[in-house]
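Kindly inspect this chain:
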Amino acid sequence: MQVELLILDVDGVMTDGTKVYDESHNVLSKSYLCKDFTAIKRFIASGVSVVMLSGDIFNKTMAEKRNIDFYCSRGKDLSLDKSRFLELFEEKYNIKKEKMAFVGDDYFDLSMFESLKYTYCPSDAPVTIKNLANHVLISPGGRGVVVELYDYFLEKRLIQDAPPESVAELDKKEQSSKEMS
């Protein structure tokens, strides 16, 4: 297995980047594609750890309910340098950065594109990001980026396919799944 940790930006990758705000400028909602969450479970069931790295703390509850480790990249100094997490990820997940993959879509992701070998972006990313990405996906943000990436990884033999039973077991453990019953 060539990739052992998948690092996902959220807004613009898992979503189309649209946020609905109330009159006090609090985020009320975002829209996610359920198939992307299944693809995340497939990555995990295939042996790839998955984390979300976002500048928006709003995404933390969603990640927790789906048993996905979440890291907010917006530091106390308000910096958004996501590459400062790479050393932490190497230690916590016991994975060298050469075996990490990142999916991002915007300028705040530049440091990750410059630091990792396996980098991907949705089709609607800015040209600067597309030029740095290892591969530009066909899907735009929020429209199946993670699904497409899983299929791409299978095709390139970067991962082994996940057993369906393992994916189903992961789904049963999610708080979001339990809340649907």
